[in-house]
Amino acid sequence: MTKKSDITTFEQHLEANYGKKGTKKRDKFEEGYEAFRIGIILQALRKQKGLTQQQLAEKCGTTKNYISRIENDASDIRLSTLMRIIREGLGGNLRLAIDM
Questions:
Q1: What is 9-89's CATH number?
Q2: pLDDT at site 92
């Protein structure tokens, strides 16, 4: 049986593996995680709209390969390109929030 004291929170896990917030290793992990999230969100929205990667690429003036690389976290994406994919390809608007 697991004792309550044996349970690790997600924050404790992150600190143990990547360091405290503000350290280089943790910042690099968090940056990678956000890039991964963007790809997952775009893929989910594309599928929700019933579009293939090719169709989305054609709607926003890019290539299927580029859409695939974004969805699979293999490509950095410029903000202007992300905005164009969301606006022209998916019919949405991008809003940003900044945590301090």
A1: 1.10.260.40
A2: 95
